[in-house]
Amino acid sequence: xxxxxxxxxxxxxAAAIEVNRDHLTRLDSAIGDADHGTNMHRGFTAVxxxxxxxxxxxxxxxxxxxGGTLISRVGxxxxxxxxxxxxxxxxxLTGERPDxxxxxxxxxxxxxxxxxxxxxxxxxxxMVDAFAPAVDxxxxxxxxxxxxxxxxxxxxxxxxxxxxxxxxxxxxxxxxSYLGERSIGHEDPGAASTALxxxxxxxxxxxxxx
Length: 210
Ligand code: ADP
Ligand code: MG
What we know:
The chain has a single domain (3-203), classed as Alpha Horseshoe (Serine Threonine Protein Phosphatase 5, Tetratricopeptide repeat), CATH 1.25.40. It is built from eight helices and no strands. It has helices spanning 3-31, 36-51, 59-73, 78-92, 100-118, 128-143, 148-164, 189-206. Helix 1 runs antiparallel to helix 8 (189-206) and helix 6 runs parallel beside helix 8 (189-206). The longest helix is centred in the N-terminal third of the chain and has 29 residues, at 3-31. The site of adenosine-5'-diphosphate has 24 residues, from helix 2, helix 4, helix 5 and helix 8.
């Protein structure tokens, strides 16, 4: 992943979050405290500001800067979780042109850090339920020799399937877990934002940088 692509990813992510801000907040009003869209929008607006004019030498620098911004600027649980994911992934993307396998390995590290920080596993009805299948799909595509655009599209589809699969689950982590069985029947807001982030990666990878 190149620096331009990392920047394009975060711009596409910020745009998608802006469009879906109210939808994310509606999901969070069903099983949380109705702030996920606001949290993500505040965070990614700050990320774009922090990257504006920032002299990043590698894609990793871009992701580390973005992650630190999310950690410091988002009050909800999602800020430190996404921030840690991006920072951890960024620390592995030190080369100038990591390939799809390198990106998959970096995001796998980011996912592992989220699971550690949040004590979450697949099936707990969190962002991990979209993040983990996306990383698996990215790795499988990379292993099959696909290019980054194809790999990222597979990851986005897997994240979206993971999101849909959160609806029938009972939450075991985060605020939604306080609802017990009443959390069943709603998609998880963080899984929804994760699906947006992977779709944004696919969109950015499909376009020439600019
Ligand atoms: P808060 O829950 O503090 O209001 P947000 O509403 O911004 O923060 O984010 C909620 C989302 O964060 C949840 O939908 C879930 O996906 C994710 N989340 C919350 N707690 C955890 C956790 N312990 N591990 C993984 N993800 C979590
Ligand atoms: Mg919330």
